[in-house]
Design goal:
single chain, 181 residues, alpha/beta, Rossmann fold, four-stranded antiparallel β-sheet, 21% helix, binds inosinic acid
Amino acid sequence: MSRIRLHDLEFEPFIPEQELSDAISRVAGELEVKYADRRPLFIGVLNGAFFFAAELIKRLEIECEITFVKVASYHGTNSTGRVTDLIGLNERLTDRHVVVLEDIVDTGTTVRYIMDALKDHHPASISICTLLFKPDAYKQNIPIDHVAVRIPNDFVVGSGLDHDGLGRNLPGILRIIKNDT
Ligand code: IMP
């Protein structure tokens, strides 16, 4: 695949589909060892994690369940002025082993919100598992337990990740082309 324009930005191929697929298989192997006989509940964070969730889950041969949530952030009337909600969580989490599936962990703000929200449900354990991780951008101290691919602090699209709604359908990962002029 060559360069592609999405809205105002240009992107170039970065991680080929096969490399991504191999990385997802490796993570699936890690999870199978860790969660055999624990019937984990995978929670995919929409919209971006739909691709990773589907690719990961089809590789797992252990007993498991999957559900999806959406993180809604809006201005409210509390002291910080910002309210965050986890929408769509209907499962009982008490004493369950929960694995959060993210498309990308950047600053970690989203992971922090999700962690805090899930802890209130008293699961037996919570792990974070992500397709992409930007270690140089990460600002939290929550461990990211399972990472398919670590990437530099560049804006990327493809395989579920978007730029203003576009690019989620693109295979592999594409990276922004920076114009230094
Ligand atoms: P956070 O900074 O870790 O909370 O990431 C917030 C959200 O920003 C992620 O869930 C993505 O939806 C989005 N995001 C962060 N980096 C990228 C990127 O490189 N491409 C597309 N979306 C991104």
